[in-house]
């Protein structure tokens, strides 16, 4: 992974990082406030061997060595139960000797004759009294420990009343909680990304389906503006569908026309939205296009175009209406539409009938492109049935929702039924080519001519290579208008 891939993961999973950063310091703060503060009384003891005045340097040196050897032993004696009992006898407290012993800590100071003595307690005044009491009790016990009183222990720094608790250290705990939250949040973000098997890039979709990705559509407000190619042609989504149109044209380069079943692994992947916008983009390029809503379970094409659902595919398949009477002709820049009609009790049987084959054959004789919107491929077999009458399947996957397992299962279902996947489309993708949204947001009403010139250039690329293709597209568009006016 590159640095931008790491940044993409953090941006995508930013909510995990933010939640962890908020929870961990909050937990540390609550825990600190709920913990009773502990104070520590500290004192210093000096250990020195007694020497006779004028005994010489050698005797003084031996006394110092003896004192250093005794310092470690005395530190352990200070923490003993005997000293705790003696301290409580000197200054009675509501503690047992064992409880006091657990509060005492003695540590020799390296390369010195000093011992650091500390006693912890929740009451700062009692911490001071206990510390000084332990020190005095130990000093009084030293003569009994050393026969002949060869060592002298003195309290060089008595304990004072502590002003700040040693625990909890609220600021430090919050700072550590913040750091821990950041580490946990980043870790969870990358763990979630690793465990997430959803398809996020065109490369992942192509690897899962084994078919080329002919289009990548960014996320847009499909509920509010489902057909941006017609309503908002200068948005990044509209341009993505025009790129899809360009690549889609190459799928039928060796055919007089193209009939394609459009489906997805599961519902809510956006197959109907892709079908509608692709059909509009192809129509704007001067091609004769018809949409057939073969989703006889949960049709939605009529909702996208605002059409009446009463007469449609099922009506024609049941010979209750003629095909050309059931097709609804819209504006000049919009495709013809055959809505689903009344929902039948047996969609698969109806779509597998001879009449469905005849319907597709009749449409292919009239239109250059026939797009058949089918139900999802994993829940039902309808797309497999319809694919037998078409040139192949265009599989739509939703970025961040469709998993690699689902895409592979859809591929396996198509292979098992003998259906060919012509290509795939990554819908609602967070990964786009370049900075389309920035580039196309630059266009304003004053740049309308420049945008239209760019669209004409795209049409030239669809027509082929070399000179003279602009006139070919113009002739095709003119012929299309004449044909459609004749049909009406």
Please characterize this protein's 3D structure.
The chain is of the alpha/beta class and 488 residues long. The protein has 3 domains: 3-35 and 168-195, no CATH class; 39-157, Alpha-Beta Plaits; 202-487, Rossmann fold, CATH 3.40.50.300. Helix content is 52%, strand content 15%. The strands form 2 sheets. It has a 7-stranded parallel sheet with strand order 5-11-10-6-9-7-8, sandwiched between helices. Strands 2-3-1-4 form a 4-stranded antiparallel sheet. Helix 10 packs across helix 11. The chain is rod-shaped. Mean pLDDT is 85; it is low at 434-482 and 484-488.
Q: What keywords describe this structure?
A:
Alpha-Beta Plaits, four-stranded antiparallel sheet, alpha/beta, Rossmann fold, seven-stranded parallel sheet, 21 helices, 488 residues
Which helices and strands, and how do they pair?
Layout: H1 3-12, H2 14-34, E1 39-49, H3 57-78, H4 81-90, H5 97-103, E2 104-108, E3 114-121, H6 124-145, E4 151-157, H7 170-195, H8 202-209, E5 213-218, H9 228-231, H10 236-251, E6 258-263, H11 271-284, E7 289-293, H12 301-305, H13 313-317, H14 323-326, E8 336-338, H15 347-351, H16 354-366, E9 369-373, H17 382-387, E10 392-398, H18 404-417, E11 421-429, H19 436-441, H20 448-463, H21 469-487
Parallel strand pairs: 5-11, 6-9, 6-10, 7-8, 7-9, 10-11
Antiparallel strand pairs: 1-3, 1-4, 2-3
* Count of distinct strands: 11
CATH fold group of the largest domain: Rossmann fold
Enumerate how many helices there are, as a single number: 21
The biggest beta sheet is recorded as: 7 strands, parallel
**CATH homologous superfamily assignment of the largest domain:** P-loop containing nucleotide triphosphate hydrolases
